[in-house]
Amino acid sequence: MTDKTLLDDCFLHDKDRLRHDEALAILKDRLSPVASRETVSLADALERILAEDITAPRNVPLADNSAVDGYAFRHADFETTGGFFRLQQRIAAGHATDIALAPWAAARIFTGAVMPPGADTVAMQEDCETHQQDGHDFVIVPQGLKIGANCRKAGEDVAEGAAVLSAGHCLRPQDLAAIASTGRARIDVYRKLKVGLVSTGDELRRPGDLMNLGDVYDSNHFLLRGLCAALPVEIEDFGILKDDAALVEVTLKDAASRCDVVLTTGGASRGDEDHILKALDTLGKRHMWQLAIKPGRPMMFGNIGASAFLGLPGNPVAAMVCFLLYVRPVISLLAGSGFCEPQGFEVPAAFDVPTKKPDRREFYRGYLGTDETGATVVHKFMRDGSGLITGLREADGLIEIPEEVTAIRRGEPVRFLPFSGFGIR
Ligand SMILES: Nc1nc2c(c(=O)[nH]1)N[C@H]1C(S)=C(S)[C@@H](COP(=O)(O)OP(=O)(O)OC[C@H]3O[C@@H](n4cnc5c(N)ncnc54)[C@H](O)[C@@H]3O)O[C@H]1N2
Ligand code: MOO
């Protein structure tokens, strides 16, 4: 641990605060997965984290089958028959046959039906001619089909014994389809983490309540609840706490005894009415506080017993940025799917920032657009206030500006972290 980790002075210069990369390193270092396993039905497994490796117990598809509605034949018989086959059998999907094709014969076959023994090629019905003669049905298949045409091979999707998915993977609809295709009905996943949400501040009211002058609706609760919805967690709402040191302490103690993660907003800095830090120091251990980032400077991380404690700033923009940068990877790690860092890419800035303070990393609200040539550029939400929910609403990602940058000129590449890279929209 560096001696910057437990900073006790919120009036420090940024160069003395913990840098973003140092904060990430502490989170990775101090945490390990906590979630136990449970077995669930595939129907309940969406967005859950796989706790076992999945291999295919059998070929998918199980048998060679037709990719089209048409006529199945043995390619080698084309020469001798001139493509003129007598229809020997009819095979629909779900009605496999063990009758081998005679050398003079073809089978009427439908998409998904198992190829009859001996057949290796299928002609599409639109390309064939059929007729009857002497009470028999015949088909003329076209020239030029390659051996194996329109035939799907057993195991061509997944071969028996092949790896399908690994433990730690967060299950998407297409993953569930892959598991279902192997025949598994129940799988082992990690238990959902329990996350306790706490809002603090005398000024806060829940939407629907009456408001007095100076009151603020608790928008952060809904922000965090929504952000958590993209993660494998269950939420327990500990409501709004008044700025009362004893109440904050007793509630955090209770929350920590019941939850894997306690997530607070507000009261994170060192005002007379900010009690979160003191409660953390009394009940557990502080691992970091005061980061060299904007927004989100008073971000706090610690533990109260076995529970991870994450104290977010009260300003909504700082709360969301810190959730995406720190809380989401922490939850992901504790829940069994590793510390997930956002994907981003470089894109030219459609804005100027004449001066930026050095020594801190800044995250602007950004949205993609095109310039006059049609090239992709990123716009910055022009107002910087950390209380402006409008900027979060209008953005479709964050623009990440490193510590050493002191100005940005239009056209220069900047790193854009789309919200989709954080698993949200
Ligand atoms: N003297 C200093 N003042 C402040 C500093 C500092 O270093 N020295 N840091 C500033 C920064 S940066 C931030 S961010 C804020 C964060 O402070 P707190 O976490 O203690 O948050 P509060 O003071 O409780 O609230 C800040 C702001 O956000 C509103 N808020 C709080 N909770 C909610 C909620 N659940 N939903 C919506 N809005 C909420 C609150 O009403 C305040 O307006 O401190 C700066 N000050
Ligand atoms: O940096 Mo605060 O985190 O102003 O919102």
UniProtKB/TrEMBL annotation:
PANTHER family linked to this entry: GEPHYRIN, MOLYBDOPTERIN BIOSYNTHESIS PROTEIN
- Catalytic activity annotated for this protein? adenylyl-molybdopterin + molybdate = Mo-molybdopterin + AMP + H(+)
**Keywords linked to the UniProt accession:** Magnesium, Metal-binding, Molybdenum, Molybdenum cofactor biosynthesis, Transferase
By sequence similarity, the record places it as follows:
Belongs to the MoeA family.
Its EC number is 2.10.1.1
Q: What is this protein called?
A: Molybdopterin molybdenumtransferase
Instruction: Read off the NCBIfam families from this record.
Output: Glp_gephyrin, molyb_syn
User: Which cofactors, by name?
Assistant: Mg(2+)
**What Pfam families is this protein classified in?**
MoCF_biosynth (PF00994), MoeA_C (PF03454), MoeA_N (PF03453)
Q: Where is the signal peptide?
A: none
UniProt domain MoaB/Mog: residue ranges: 196-333
What role does it play?
Catalyzes the insertion of molybdate into adenylated molybdopterin with the concomitant release of AMP.
What metabolic or biological pathway is this protein involved in?
Cofactor biosynthesis; molybdopterin biosynthesis
Source organism's superkingdom? Bacteria
